[in-house]
Amino acid sequence: MRQGLKAFLLSAFVFPGLGQLYNQDRRKGVALVLGTNLLLGVTLLAGMVLFSQEYLAVFYPRPLTWELVNLLLIDTISHPLFWIPFGLLMALWGFAMVDAARGAGRSKPAANP
């Protein structure tokens, strides 16, 4: 049980896929790390594009102040194109946490020489 808790905490609070790597499930761990990095990049890219489009379309002549940044962030976060990759990222993160905890209890088959 202790190994399952460590794997869960690694995937939950450090980075998805590290729990699988801790459990010696290398293929799944690498796939989850790469998938998480991809979705994180897409989420950040979508956020930056939406932020800049809103700024250029509505506020361009005005200088960028903290009040304007707060308004733009609220508009960016409320846009559905931001929530699609963000939702997929959170789903992948949740899967990694649960799978890491469950995978710690499974025994690996012995390698045949």
Textual characterization of the structure:
The chain is mainly alpha-helical. The protein has one domain. 78% of the residues lie in helices and 0% in strands. The chain contains five helices and no strands. The longest helix is centred in the middle third of the chain and has 34 residues, at 26-59. It is elongated and about 60 Å long. The model has no long low-confidence stretch (mean pLDDT 87).
**Which band does the percent of strand residues land in?**
under 5%
Q: Tally the helices: what do you get?
A: 5
Rg, Cα atoms, Å: 20 Å
The general outline is elongated
Whole-number mean pLDDT: 87
According to DSSP, the number of beta strands is 0
Amino- and carboxy-terminal Cα gap: 30 Å
Provide key terms for this protein:
single chain; 113 residues; mainly alpha
Brief characterization of the structure:
By secondary structure, the chain is an all-alpha fold. Helix content is 78%, strand content 0%. α1 packs antiparallel against α5 (80-103) and α3 runs antiparallel to α5 (80-103).
